[in-house]
Amino acid sequence: MIRKHFAGIAASALALAISAQAVAGTVTTDGADIVVKTKGGLEVATADKEFAFKVGGRLQADYSTFDGFYTVNGESADAAYFRRAFLEISGVAYKDWAYQINYDFSHNAGSQEDGYFDEASIAYTGFKPVTIKVGRFDPAFGLEKATSSKWVTAQERNAAYDLVDWANGHQNGLGIEVSATPTESLFGSVGMSAKDQNDVDGESTKQVNLRGVFAPLHETGNVLHLGVNFAQRDLSDTVFDSRIRSRLGMRGVSTGGGNDAGTNGNRLLLGGANNRPAGSYDDDSAWGLEAAWAMGPFSVQGEYIQRELQADDAAFEDVDATGYYAQVAYTLTGEAREYKLGKFDKIKPENKQIGAWEVFYRYDNISVEDDNGAFAAIDDIEGKVHNVGVNWYANEAVKLSGVYVTSAVDNAENDAGDDDGDGFVVRAQYVF
Fold first, then answer.
1. Structural domain tally of the chain?
2. DSSP letter at 89?
3. Is residue 412 part of a domain?
4. Separation between Cα atoms, residue 276 and residue 222, nearest integer Å
5. Which range among 170-174, 275-279, 385-389 shows the weakest confidence by mean pLDDT?
6. Cα-Cα-Cα-Cα dihedral of 295, 431, 303, 420, to 10°?
7. What is the CATH number for 264?
8. Residue 20 pLDDT greater than 50, yes or no
C-alpha cells in the first residue's frame, strides 16, 4: 500500500515535469494511471483520485484616476498597480487531505515579516459533510468575502468591510475552521484564530468567527440566499490600532503592487486612534446579515454590518460602527452567475466570439460614532459611495472591467475643504 501511494506521488511529479517541457509521449507507472489537464492551469491527478496537484494563479492589473476627497489637496491623481498577483498551488493527498497555498507577489496580502501569503492551509475532508481546515486563511464573514476576488462583481469589495477589516481580513497568525453542508440548502462554519498581535504578557489576540447560510434556492440562475455572521476578538490588555479607515472604493489612494497616490492619497478616517493603550478596550464584536436573489442573468444582493468596540476604561467611550450595501447586476448576454452553496462564482461566456457582458450598480454606506479624543465634538462621520460599472468576460480566463466611483462624506473633509470625490478604475484580469 505504501509503495502504491509513493508511486502515485512520483507519477504526478513526473507528469508535471514532462508537461512543463511540452514533450509528447507516454508515461507509464506501476501505480494508478494519471490524468493531465491543462485547461485553467496545470493539473495532474491519479485516476483513482487519491492524489492531485494543480498550479494556477491570478493577475489583476489596475489603473485608476481620481480627485476631490480622494486626494489631500483635491487635485487629480492616478495610480497604476497590480491589485493581486497570486501564484496558487493546491492538491489532494491520500484522498481526504487537501492543501492550498496562495502567495501574493503584489504584497497586498500578508506582510514582510510573516510572508505575503493570501492562504496557506491544510484541510481534512474525510468526515463528510464536515471539513476541518487549519493554517493561515481569511476567517469567514460575509457573502462578498466568501466569493473569490476573481469573480466579485465590482473591482473592490463593499466599503462596509472596511469597518471590520479584522473580522475577515489578512491579519497574520493561524486558525482552525470547521465547516459543514448538512443539506443542499444549509452551510455553517465556526472558526478560531490566534492573531500575531499580542497583549502586554505576550498572549496572542484570540478571535472567534461564526457564519450560517440558508439557501432554499441554490441552483445557478435560481438563487435565494440568506446568511448571518458573527465575529469577536479579545483586546484586553492589548495595545492596538483602533483606527477605522476607508478608501471609499478607490484602492489607488494607498496600495501595494506598484504606484499609488503617495502622500497625496487621502483615506477617510471615521474614528479610533493608533496605539490605543492597553486596558482601553475589552471586547470587539461584529455581526452581519446577508441576502441575495438571482433569477437568470439578473441578481440582487446586500449585506448589513454592525460593530461595537467596548471600552474597558472609564476614560473611554464605546465606539459603534454601521455599514451596508445594496447591489444589482445584469448580464446583457444572458448568462447567469454561477452559485455554489454560500457564495457566488464566475460567469461563463456562452458565445466564445463576444464573451459575456455584465453591468452593475452598487451603493455603500458606512458610519462611525466615536466620542473619544478628536472625535468627541464631531457628529457621526459618514461615507456614501456609488459604483457604476461594466464587466466583459472575454473568455473563462480573461476579464476586463471598468467602474465609475463617486463618494460623499459627512463631517469630514480633505485639506482643500472637499467632502466629495470622483474616480474611475479599469482592470485587466487573467486567471489560470
1. 1
2. E
3. yes
4. 47
5. 170-174
6. -110
7. 2.40.160.10
8. no
Answer with the residue of higher pLDDT: 7 or 188.
Answer: 188
| Closest listed residue to residue 401, CA positions, set 137, 131, 52, 150 | 150
Three-class SS state of 140: coil
The 10 Å CB-count burial string (b at 16+, else e) for 265-296 is bbbbbbbbbeebebbbbbebbbbbbbebebee
Q: How far apart are CA 376 and CA 157, in angstroms?
A: 30
pLDDT digits (tens, 9 = 90+) for 313-322: 989 999 999 9
- Each as own residue / partner, the long-range contacts of residues 111-119 (CB below 8 Å, 24 or more positions apart, any chain) are 111/172, 113/172, 114/172, 114/196, 118/84, 118/86, 118/170
Q: 25: pLDDT confidence band, cut at 50, 70 and 90?
A: low
Question: Is the bond leading into 216 cis (omega within 30 degrees of zero)?
Answer: no
In a domain, 396, yes or no: yes
Single-letter amino acid, residue 201 = D
b or e along 320-349 (b: 16 or more beta carbons within 10 Å of the residue's beta carbon)? bbbbbbbbebebebebbbbbebbbbebbeb
Does 347 fall in a domain? yes
Dist. CA 66–CA 421, nearest whole Å: 7
* Stretch (H or E) spanning 7: helix 2-20
Q: Where are the alpha helices (DSSP H) in 95-177?
A: 143-146, 165-168
CA distances from 130 to 5, 181, 272 (A): 25, 7, 39
Angle at 235 between CA 230 and CA 240, to 5 degrees: 115
In a domain, 330, yes or no: yes
